[in-house]
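Q: Given only this backbone (417 positions), what sequence would you predict?
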């Protein structure tokens, strides 16, 4: 596929016009929406209105008149269908790490001290395993890590309280079968907690159909809520009223404006709210979700998924054909692949420097240290297209083949990689 072919495919793609809903700088090929989603064009004006009118003029009255107080639930309701959940079951609040802390504590409490082991994978995103270590310690248990996905089932034994997995792995883009693993966890007497950071808004998710127990995820990746956007949390309704989540702040109280001295948890997911919501950040996420209303009319998550699979497949093929020594770390089988592609380069090639050289040419992906070091490219079907695939792989092939990455401006590492 050359650039002309790619542009023809983009022109024929019914989702391609969605790109116009985003601000993407001229000359930039953005393949990092799995890390930070692009800016929806409507966001600056909407946030400006929230600042100038709702805050500036409405002042404290806006908690009621602008509906600020309802944002965590309202945004949760908007997200619910994209997670396979029902309105009223999802709350937007805090960060993914904080929400994970809440749900892991709740899950361990549900096991009533009979089981204290959390099972996960060593390759999980570090924050998940760090939080799980601390929660397991607090309950007198431990975190046990599978080295490979196939090592998970034997760890689901009578000590296992919770199976905590990230649906799509942040390094490899490998996707777990949520229904199957949840079933295995339940058959072993464990609960299933899912991190949807790399799947919300880009792959079909069926939390209720999978009968999962808890889920959490980020608002700033494929949902495009902006840097540090609030996260979301879901609990299966069967657990309602069974336990307290540990961060018992006033807005998770059954009647916060009674200012009672005793904590009484609010029913359902509302209990998972802790303190005052970040209204401006919530407003940005609210605006970003408008794009998903448009997607719903263009085939919904199925259409997004089909496009994402086509783009990642085209990218894998082009990298294999054009980039010498690249070893793809992402599954080729569609059912096992999220919406990103990662690959390793031969040891003598500095992957970090290659990514910096690529960024200098306007192609933005990212680099993840580890063994192997990986170059990661996220395909956000809302605004990524076939021309992005061709531009990125042509530049990559040139950088690796000519060795132009080997220059001091590319090899010196910055704080954020
Ligand atoms: C799987 C996963 N969980 C959680 C996070 C981040 O959590 P937080 O938003 O709390 O920093 C990331 C960030 O990339 C992630 O990949």
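A: Predicted residues:
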């Amino acid at each position: 596929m050359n650039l002309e072919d790619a542009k023809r495919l983009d022109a024929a793609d019914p989702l391609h016009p969605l790109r116009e809903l985003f601000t993407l700088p001229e000359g930039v090929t953005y393949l990092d929406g799995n890390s930070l989603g692009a800016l929806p064009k409507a966001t600056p004006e909407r946030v400006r209105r929230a600042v100038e009118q709702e805050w500036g003029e409405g002042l404290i009255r806006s908690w009621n008149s602008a509906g600020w107080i309802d944002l965590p639930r309202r945004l949760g309701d908007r997200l619910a269908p994209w997670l396979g959940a029902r309105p009223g079951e999802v709350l937007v609040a805090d960060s993914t790490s904080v929400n994970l802390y809440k749900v892991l504590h709740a899950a361990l409490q549900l096991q009533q001290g009979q089981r204290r082991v959390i099972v996960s994978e060593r390759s999980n995103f570090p924050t998940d395993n760090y939080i799980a270590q601390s929660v397991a310690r607090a309950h007198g248990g431990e975190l046990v890590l599978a080295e490979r996905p196939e090592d998970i089932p034997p760890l689901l034994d009578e000590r296992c309280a919770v199976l905590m997995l990230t649906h799509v792995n942040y390094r490899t883009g490998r996707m777990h079968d949520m229904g199957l693993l949840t079933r295995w966890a339940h058959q072993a007497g464990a609960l299933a907690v899912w991190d949807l950071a790399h799947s919300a808004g880009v792959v079909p998710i069926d939390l209720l159909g999978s009968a999962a127990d808890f889920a959490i995820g980020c608002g700033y990746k494929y949902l495009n809520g902006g840097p540090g956007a609030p996260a979301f949390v879901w609990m299966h309704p069967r657990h309602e009223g069974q336990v307290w989540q540990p961060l018992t702040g006033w807005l998770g109280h059954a009647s916060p404006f009674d200012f009672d001295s005793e904590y009484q948890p609010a029913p359902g997911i509302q209990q998972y709210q802790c303190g005052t919501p970040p209204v401006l950040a919530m407003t940005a996420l609210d605006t970003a979700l408008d794009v998903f209303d448009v997607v719903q009319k263009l085939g919904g998550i199925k259409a997004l998924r089909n496009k994402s699979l086509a783009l990642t497949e085209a990218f894998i093929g082009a990298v294999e054909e054009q980039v010498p020594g690249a070893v793809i770390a992402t599954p080729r089988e569609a059912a096992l692949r999220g919406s990103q592609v990662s690959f390793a380069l031969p040891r003598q090639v500095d992957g970090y420097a290659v990514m910096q050289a690529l960024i200098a040419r306007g192609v933005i992906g990212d680099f993840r240290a580890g063994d192997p070091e990986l170059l990661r490219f996220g395909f956000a079907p809302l605004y990524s297209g076939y021309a992005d695939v061709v531009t990125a792989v042509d530049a990559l092939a040139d950088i690796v083949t000519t060795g132009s990455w080997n220059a001091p401006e590319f090899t010196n590492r910055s704080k954020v990689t």
